[in-house]
Amino acid sequence: MDQILFIGLGNMGFPMACNLLRKGFSVTGFDLYSNIQSSFEKEGGKWAHSLEQSANESNIIISMLPGGKELKNLYIKNQKLFSFLQKGTLIIDCTTADPEIIRQVAEKSKKYFLNMVDAPVSGGTAGAAQGTLTFIVGGAASDLDRARPFLSAMGKNIFHAGKSGDGQAVKVCNNMLLAIHMIGTCEALNLGKALGLSTKTLSEIMKVSSGNNWSLEKYNPCPGVMKGVPSDREYEGGFAVQLMVKDLSLAMKSAKSYGQSPVLGKKAYDLYKTHMEKGFGKKDFSHVFKQEKGK
Ligand code: NAD
């Protein structure tokens, strides 16, 4: 039987691991914040008291970390972890990170006779909870085939983007667009509010008009318009502004390396960075709805 070690049980990782448990997989969880342990055990998961020992007892490693720095610490700088993994173990990394770091981890994996795919996700915390995430996979087709049963337990759409790191490259483009349409949606709703419109009615009309987009339809940033989204709970427990800043900085880095200069992407990066510096780094990224006028 497959034994999964799930590393990183945050806003995304926790509900993803719970879906694996619900589908009958055996999952051991590990997070630097051990206060998650009791909630994970209540869901039927085991807790890794020693990362290396649990790694040794697992044949599937799934990681969902904040970003490239944490990924590097876990897989590149940690000298012990790989030597504890059994040959043939499959690493499925779902973190959004620099494609270059992913390729470094994939190279190191090969040296230890391990297999690795990058499988960043789209769909947010609601998609993670409902098991409807989209996985964008980079790596060998045979490794994706092996990863498929686990990804299917956590998501609805699985795409093979190409070679190792290409899942991340797609994710970087997607999140630059996400940031841009979230900002645009906030601006349209704030303008409507200033014009004395009901933001609920405005949203209903734009959803079936040419202004429709994912931020408006699934993630309305205006409090009181939609239930179950971060704007309905003080912008807590979603996709943090600081993670969006990370993703946009990856987009800017990639654009620079390939001679591109996306104008709106750069503006979105500056806006989110300023929002983070104002102390809103941990709020959901739809909190830009609250940014001060004209700033
Ligand atoms: P999060 O900060 O809520 O969770 C990350 C978890 O990783 C934390 O619990 C942290 O303690 C843990 N962690 C960090 N370093 C670790 C280590 N070395 N070992 C074990 N655990 C470690 O972040 P999140 O919102 O769950 O996002 C995770 C990833 O998914 C990010 O790369 C993000 O960009 C991406 N993502 C998030 C969303 C979203 O809506 N939140 C959507 C799509 C993609």
Task: Write a short abstract of this structure.
This protein has helices at residues 13-22, 37-42, 51-56, 68-77, 81-84, 99-111, 124-130, 141-154, 166-194, 199-207, 214-218, 241-257, 263-280, and strands at 3-7, 26-30, 46-47, 60-63, 90-93, 115-118, 121-122, 133-138, 155-162.
Protein described:
The protein is α/β, with parallel strands linked by helices. The protein has 2 domains: 3-163, NAD(P)-binding Rossmann-like Domain (Rossmann fold), CATH 3.40.50.720; 169-293, N-(1-d-carboxylethyl)-l-norvaline Dehydrogenase, domain 2, CATH 1.10.1040.10. The chain has 13 helices and 9 strands. The chain has helices at residues 13-22, 37-42, 51-56, 68-77, 81-84, 99-111, 124-130, 141-154, 166-194, 199-207, 214-218, 241-257, 263-280, and strands at 3-7, 26-30, 46-47, 60-63, 90-93, 115-118, 121-122, 133-138, 155-162. A 6-stranded parallel sheet has the order 3-2-1-4-5-6, with helices on both faces. It has a 3-stranded mixed sheet with strand order 7-8-9. The N and C termini lie far apart (55 Å). Nicotinamide-adenine-dinucleotide binds at residues 7-13, 30-33, 64-67, 70, 73-74, 95-96, 121, 124-125, 238-239, 243, 247.
